[in-house]
Specification:
By secondary structure, the chain is α/β, with parallel strands linked by helices. The chain contains ten helices and ten strands. The strands form two sheets. It has an eight-stranded mixed β-sheet, with helices on both faces. Strand 1 and strand 2 form a beta hairpin. The N and C termini lie far apart (about 40 Å).
Length: about 300
């Protein structure tokens, strides 16, 4: 049976949940938010706890998130990995492209705050933000603008960057369409007081010919400097560790952007040789080692 589960998990691109993992939930705004809590013992709340945020349209049971939770637990670090709701109650698995998109990039900040509240209500007071890919940017954005005393620092794994020109070029290459007129259309609807109006047969993030609200389209594609993680780093009030993979083709050039900002103290940077964007297999252990060292130092 276990072999069958492992094969199914491999086929679906999922990780196997660590032993002792517990699914927890909380209500928020009429939705049910869910997360996976992996603890290191009965007194877990007395030690460091990491809040782990996933990437674009993803979820808490994807391979990298599960591997990181297991690796962190092996190093004595508890973690909570939510699945961002993206406007859906108790969402699980990758976002279904057949469903309309009414979520925005910055919505994640409110949910990060809700899960920090949840952890603090259970006595956790040594908290660290840890985000992967888009989740890395969302964690950095939260740290820059919504810091709280219980937060000790942030760990950003292959965090996303932003450049309006590069985004337009990537959209054109992926979908064969110009982004500017679509963004202008969505922005006009938002300005006219119709942010919830759906754009039909629109290419959106990883979803081709889907539906997305005007507010969602603007929320992901309008020129917003705060979606550029390297640009946020000087604003973070607490120490931050940025980790990149040398073979990452999803967020290329991160080392060149972050390296000059790293002073070895407030901003630290580590390059994992050979790792791609998802830090598979033993690379997750390398990341966990770096994270544990950062947490021990702060």
């Amino acid at each position: 049976m276990r072999i069958g589960r492992l094969l199914m998990a491999w086929a679906l691109g999922l990780g196997m949940l660590p032993a002792g993992a517990e699914t927890v939930s909380q209500p928020r705004g009429g939705l049910t938010l869910e997360a996976e809590l992996v603890t290191t013992g009965a007194d877990w709340h007395a030690g460091p706890v990491v809040l782990l945020t996933h990437g674009t349209l993803a979820h808490r049971q994807m391979e990298i998130i599960v591997a990181l939770q297991e690796a962190l637990a092996a190093r004595g670090i508890s973690s909570l990995a939510p699945t961002l709701s993206l406007g859906q109650s108790a969402r699980r698995g990758m976002y279904d492209c057949a469903q309309p998109h009414r979520h925005r990039h910055a919505d994640a900040l409110d949910e990060i705050g809700s899960w920090l509240d949840w952890l603090q209500a259970r006595g956790a007071q040594r908290l660290y933000l840890f985000g992967h890919s888009r989740g890395g940017n969302q964690a950095a954005w939260f740290a820059a603008e919504r810091d709280r005393p219980a937060l000790r620092g942030s760990i950003l794994l292959a965090p996303s960057t932003w450049d309006a020109g590069a985004e337009a070029a990537a959209y054109r290459k992926r979908y064969g369409r110009e982004l500017a007129p679509l963004l202008a259309q969505a922005s006009a609807r938002v300005a006219a007081g119709a942010p919830g109006e759906l754009l039909e047969e629109i290419d959106f993030l990883y979803c081709a010919q889907t539906r997305a609200s005007a507010a969602a389209f603007v929320g992901y594609y309008a020129d917003e400097p705060r979606r550029d993680t390297p640009g946020l780093l000087p604003r973070l009030p607490k120490p931050v560790l940025v980790i990149a993979g040398s073979a990452d083709t999803v967020v290329p050039g991160l080392a060149q952007r972050v390296g000059p900002l790293a002073d070895g103290t407030r901003v630290q940077f580590e390059l994992v040789d050979g790792a791609d964007h998802f830090f598979r297999d033993l690379y997750a252990d390398d990341v966990a080692d770096l994270a544990a060292g950062f947490i021990q130092a702060h």
